[in-house]
Structure formats: C-alpha cells, structure tokens
Design goal:
Length: 447
C-alpha cells in the first residue's frame, strides 16, 4: 500500500514515516514540498497525507490540484491549526480525515489509515467480484450486434485486452469509435484508473498544447493558475485521442516525443512529469493517405497505429440494424417509463432498406423519434422518418442514369432545398432560369 506524506518539517515528517513503516505492508514516500509530491503522482499512491501549511503551495491548493487529477484518491489533512471551520471545509470537499498536530498525531494517523485501508480493501473485493462476473465478453453488452463483421471486432478487442499496445480505431462518423475505446479501457487492468477522451476537432489550435500537457501559472496571458493537462489527468489510465488526423502538424512532433519519452513538460515549466498511459486513437480519415499527402507525420503514424480496429458501417452489418433498433426502443421505454413498443414488418423493411449514412448515431435518433410518433403498441413504417436525409444521402453516381437524368436529379434536389425558388436555384447552379423551368415541366404532375 503506497502512502504519500507531505510535510515541510523534516523531523516531524520522518517521525510519521518511521511510525507508519512499522507496518511492512506500507510503502511510505516523504515529500517536503507540494511540488515534489505533485511530480510523483505517477506512482499512483493509495493514500496521501498533506500538511496544511507548506512553503510553496498552501494545503488547500494542493488538495484541489490532487483532486483535479485523482478525484477518488483518499486524502488526510494534517494541520497545526486547531480551527473547526478549516477542518469542516476540508471534510466538505472530500478529505477523509483532519488531524491536528500534537503528541497524539501518529496514533490518530495510524488509526485513520487502518480505516481507509479497510474501505479500500472492501472496494477492491467488490471490483474483483465484478471483474470475475464481467471479464468474459462483457463488452458485448455495450457493443450491440451479432453480425460476422462485428464478431471480428470482438476478436480484435479481446486481443487488445491482453496488453498495453496502442490501438487505432477507424470508421465512419457514428460507427461507435469511442464506445470501442471505452470497452477496451473498462475491460482492461486500467479500468479503475481514469479514461480521458479528447476531441481534436473541438480544441482551438492555439490551445492544443496547453490542453494536452497543461501549463504553469503565468505561462501565457490569461494563465492565472497552474492547469493539469489531459495526459497528466489520464496518468495510470487511458487517453483517447478522437479525430487524431485533426492534430496540428507542429504539435505532432511534441506528441511523438511525449509518447517516446513517456514524459511531458507543462507549457511554461521545466519539470518533467512521468507518464504511465495507454493510448487509443480514432479517426474517420485514412491516416496512411494523410501521411502520403504530407498532413501527418510518418514517424508518429507508426508510433500510434498499434493494433488497428476498422469499424464497419451500419449498412454492412446485416440484421444488426434491427437488433440495435430493438435495443434503442427498450432504452427509450425505460428512460421515459413507457411500455415497450414493437416494430411492424413494414417498419423493419424500411429500416433495412435505408443506408444510414450517420450509422449507429443516426439510427438511435431515428428510433427515438419513432417511439414518440408511434400510436398504440407498434411502430409503423410511417413513424420512421429520416429527417429528409435519405435523398440527400444518396450518391448521385449510384445506379444507371443518363447525364440528362443526373442533371434533372441535381436541379430537383436544389429546388427542394430552396423551397422551389427558381431564381435562387438557377443562381446557385449557375444555369439559366429556363433550364430550371424545363426540368419542372418535365416532371410528371401528381394528383
């Protein structure tokens, strides 16, 4: 059991360390500053005991910084202040105990750690039991389907669980790349540690380095406090870099260095922070093609590709559409406390006929709406709406049509999009109004 002691009084700290080490099961680390303690968090302590009055960072600030990185890590506060309001404040924020420095400190600390150890052991026993029950194919409860293409994905995930190899997940938007990443993490030996997801496309280029590696106070304008980056937050666990192809080219070299050296330096800092992480990346792009185009570093590509898992689009998953639809119907019914619905045969045919360009994410949205629209106990075909995306999703080059037919389809598409505004449609397509009118007149009128 790893115990961190943070106390700026060398004599007092050594006394507590000596006393705790009388138990051979305790591995005790003593630090005289908050900075030293924070730099060693990669060791993954089980308990941290912090002094309230430290020379570099006040105990309450150290408490917050530790909780930001490891919110569930037990912290005991030891203070020379016999102040009830300070103690209550720490306990409200999640401190496991508040001990005043006096002649009884070592006995009180010993007792407090024993209580925490019992709680930790109990939680570990529960986790072990859960692991025994769920370790075999538990990810199949999260990734729904029975198609052959999905079974191949299950096989890849199983292989990923046996090591810390990097994993690269590819697939169209909405195929469930983050779901796969979580399935790998929460079925691995790191499942009790953090899972930190980062969407590259959502982070401004100028803030990316700070988001990744954190920054020190005063590192740049607006950096009023130290910030812990995503990599440091994920220490001991898994970091999931979604849309990795969007990573700024200049930052790619810094990411490569961090992965090679297994350490980072916060922006504006000099202290090296050791990393123990598992990397999973995802993209809807072909990274190999991005390398050839010069948009992605070749050396970084080979570093992160690891075990590749290519997720099939929903249209290639056979009857999984209906299995997922049933799953989403049941979920909707449970969340909204209504009676579960059935899919009519016509509704099933309509779902199977559609290509689902938005994949699983789109199917869930379609099913949620169908549950709202349905009358009675069954979802009919008319209850299923594709938000007018069915036509838009069709590729104009599919099928066998003449150039004239393709031209007609394009003009009708933009007419519908522009509420039959002929002038606007002609302007967008850079054609004459008469051409648009000719297409309108060529379409058979319906009663």
């Amino acid at each position: 059991m790893k115990i961190f002691l943070v106390d700026d009084d060398p004599f007092f700290g050594e006394m507590l360390k000596y006393h705790l080490q009388l138990n051979p099961d305790y591995e005790v680390f003593l630090y005289n500053t908050a900075k030293d303690c924070l730099s060693e968090l990669y060791r993954n302590p089980d308990i941290i005991c912090i002094d309230f009055g430290l020379p570099d960072i006040q105990g309450d600030e150290l408490f917050k910084q530790i909780k930001n990185v490891y919110p569930n890590l037990p912290i005991i506060v030891i203070s020379g202040q016999e102040n009830i309001s300070v103690a209550i404040n720490f306990l409200k924020q999640g401190a496991k105990d508040y001990i005043v420095k006096n002649e009884h400190t070592k006995e009180l600390l010993w007792s407090s750690i024993i209580r925490l150890k019992e709680n930790i052991s109990l939680k570990q026993e529960v986790e072990d039991l859960k692991e025994e029950l769920e370790k075999k194919y538990s990810f199949e409860k999260t990734i729904i389907g029975q198609s052959d293409s999905l079974k191949a994905i299950f096989s890849k995930i199983s292989k990923a669980l046996n090591s810390n190899i990097n994993v690269s997940v590819t697939g169209e938007t909405g195929t469930g790349k983050e779901v796969v990443a979580k399935a790998i993490h929460f079925n691995s030996t790191r499942k009790s540690k953090p899972f930190v997801a980062v969407n590259m496309a959502a982070i401004p280029k100028d803030l990316m380095e700070s988001e990744f590696f954190g920054h020190e106070k005063g590192a740049f304008t607006g950096a009023n406090d130290r910030s812990i980056g995503k990599f440091e937050q994920a220490n001991g666990g898994t970091i999931f870099l979604d849309e990795i192809a969007e990573l700024d080219f200049n930052l790619q070299s810094k990411l490569l260095r961090a992965l090679q050296e297994r350490e980072i330096v916060r922006v504006g800092g000099t202290q090296k922070i050791k990393l123990d992480i598992r990397l999973i990346i995802a993209t809807h792009k072909d990274l190999a093609s991005e390398v050839k185009k010069g948009n992605f570093r070749e050396d970084l590509y080979y570093r992160i590709v690891g075990l590749p898992i290519a997720l099939p689009p929903l249209r290639d998953r056979d009857q999984d559409v209906l299995i997922l639809a049933k799953h989403f119907i049941d979920s909707f019914s449970k969340e909204n406390k209504v009676k579960p619905l059935n899919l009519s045969s016509d509704a099933k045919k309509k779902l199977l006929k559609y290509s689902f360009p938005g994949n699983v994410r789109e199917l869930k949205s379609v099913i949620d709406l169908a549950c709202v629209m349905a009358e009675g106990n069954e979802i009919e075909a008319d209850d299923i709406n594709f938000y007018h995306l069915e036509k838009e999703a069709e590729t104009f080059l599919t099928g066998h049509k003449t150039l004239k037919q393709y031209t007609t389809d394009i003009i009708l598409h933009f007419l519908k999009k522009n509420n039959n505004d002929v002038i606007k449609t002609a302007k967008i397509l850079d054609i004459g109004k008469s051409t648009v009118y000719n297409v309108i007149n060529s379409v058979p009128k319906t009663n």
